[in-house]
């Protein structure tokens, strides 16, 4: 059977951008910028984007495009002995992330429903931890399921199943053509509201006022690289699978630049929405900014909605918009993970899309059940720590070394350059083959040292 194809170039770009744009852009990048030197952080960020972001993105795109295979098959077709398992390592890591990414989207869905039905709670922390998660005392106490989370997660899986089961063009492409424009419009609305609030501009100052003295701290450069890698969805076979559905004439260099810049642009923009709104909260409560600023789960599920609740009018609508954004950004990433795993199973076992996606969905749902228990958040934290930090780096390093040094670095260069007006030639090969893996290795070592100490 002929390999499926994207219907249009734009469809592919939107799907890849949809994968890249996710929770990391909204709840991680803005805080990282704020705490790592504000506007000055953009220097390490863009350096990282060029050295380990766009270059590895190009590698993943050329791997998928030139071999017409998902990650394991792509690496196998490079004909290095035993390299197929590197692809599987990335895909399996993606599968693990998928099982808990779905849960976070599920929380967002429960939160959205509760706000729509019952308005803002009075105690935001209690609302999230007790009412939604029904959080137990520790990871050892599972204490049964949080029923609302369980139902939401099943629903989120079902949506993902429908998208991926419908195929590359009819499922992923059609969905992302709707999701991405909506997401950009809604985030713009949140940005405009955020910066026009009383205190909004102060928030932006906290977000972006540059502190160049921080640039001497190596840690900041490491953080920037880690964020870029995760943010571009690299290391999980996603971009490999997506580019394997591109038509013959595709400009890999240009695609890599567009996808990476759109992801960074979205992150930068999201920061205005987040910090404008947090600035409003700090000013209206008359407390120092350090007391309101937050990231990750605390930002999305506690502080941000709480800030909106202080608004005299329209806060609930904005909170609904915010959670809707989280859900759309989340699903466009989770569907890409599901596609990466599904296409790998299809390629390996020669089964139909339907069979593969049914199998992956059932396994994924079952494996993720633990996070829907009352002790789920603890487990999610532990698993996230290892998979979103370590696994992608390990896969990234192995991928680069095999593709560039054991196999056909020069052939890949020719392949890329013959399809683009922008000739990157040998420069790309050396950056992605030497500098990128060295940087990733340093990050890996540093993470390990911090973990051990
Ligand atoms: N790129 C996503 C983000 O920034 C995270 C992600 C990584 C999603 C890998 C899917 C796969 O949030
Ligand atoms: Na991202």
From TrEMBL:
One Pfam family, short name: SNF
PROSITE patterns: NA_NEUROTRAN_SYMP_1, NA_NEUROTRAN_SYMP_3
Protein family: Belongs to the sodium:neurotransmitter symporter (SNF) (TC 2.A.22) family.
Transmembrane segments: 12-30, 42-64, 85-113, 145-166, 178-200, 220-245, 257-283, 317-338, 358-380, 386-406, 427-449
Record key words, sorted: Membrane, Symport, Transmembrane, Transmembrane helix, Transport
Location(s), subcellular: Membrane
Protein name: Transporter
GO cellular component, one term: membrane
Primary localization: membrane
Coiled coil: none
Cross-referenced InterPro entries: Na/ntran_symport, SNS_sf
Organism: Methanooceanicella nereidis
Transport among keywords: yes
Bilayer disposition of the protein: Multi-pass membrane protein
A single MF term (Gene Ontology): symporter activity
């Amino acid at each position: 059977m002929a390999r499926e194809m994207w219907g249009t170039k734009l469809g592919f770009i939107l799907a890849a951008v949809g994968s890249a744009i996710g929770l990391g852009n909204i709840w991680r990048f803005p805080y990282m910028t704020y705490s790592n030197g504000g506007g000055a952080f953009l220097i390490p960020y863009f350096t990282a984007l060029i050295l380990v972001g766009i270059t590895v993105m190009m590698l993943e795109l050329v791997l998928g495009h030139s071999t017409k295979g998902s990650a394991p098959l792509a690496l196998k077709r490079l004909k290095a002995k035993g390299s197929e398992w590197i692809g599987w390592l990335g895909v399996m890591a993606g599968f693990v992330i998928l099982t808990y990414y779905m849960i976070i989207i599920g929380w967002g869905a429960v939160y959205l429903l509760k706000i729509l039905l019952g308005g803002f709670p009075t105690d935001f922390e209690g609302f999230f931890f007790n009412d939604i998660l029904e959080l137990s005392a520790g990871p050892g106490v599972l204490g049964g399921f949080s029923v609302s989370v369980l139902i939401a997660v099943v629903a989120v899986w079902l949506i993902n199943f429908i998208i991926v089961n419908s195929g590359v063009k009819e499922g992923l492409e059609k969905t992302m053509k709707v999701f991405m424009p909506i997401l950009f419009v809604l985030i713009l609305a949140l940005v405009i509201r955020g910066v026009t609030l009383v205190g909004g501009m102060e928030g932006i100052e906290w977000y972006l006022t540059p502190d160049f003295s921080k640039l001497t701290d190596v840690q900041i450069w490491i953080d920037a690289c880690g964020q870029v890698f995760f943010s571009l969805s690299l290391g999980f076979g996603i971009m490999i699978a997506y580019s394997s559905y591109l038509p013959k004439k595709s400009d890999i260099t240009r695609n890599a630049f567009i996808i990476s810049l759109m992801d960074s642009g979205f992150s930068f923009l999201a920061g205005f929405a987040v910090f404008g709104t947090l600035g409003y909260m700090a000013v209206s409560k008359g407390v120092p900014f350090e007391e309101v600023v937050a990231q990750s789960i605390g930002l999305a599920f506690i502080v941000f909605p709480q800030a909106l609740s202080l608004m005299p009018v329209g806060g609930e609508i904005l909170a609904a918009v915010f959670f809707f954004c989280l859900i759309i950004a989340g699903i466009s990433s989770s569907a890409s993970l599901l596609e990466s795993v599904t296409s790998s199973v299809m390629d390996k076992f020669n089964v139909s899309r339907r069979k593969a996606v049914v199998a992956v969905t059932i396994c994924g749902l079952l494996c993720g059940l633990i996070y829907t228990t009352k002790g789920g958040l603890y487990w999610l934290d532990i698993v996230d720590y290892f998979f979103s930090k370590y696994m992608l780096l390990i896969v990234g390093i192995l991928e680069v070394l095999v593709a560039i040094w054991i196999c056909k670095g020069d052939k890949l260069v020719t392949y890329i350059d013959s399809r683009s007006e922008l000739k990157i030639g040998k420069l790309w090969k050396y950056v992605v083959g030497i500098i990128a893996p060295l940087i990733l290795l340093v990050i890996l070592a540093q993470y390990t040292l911090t973990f051990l100490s």
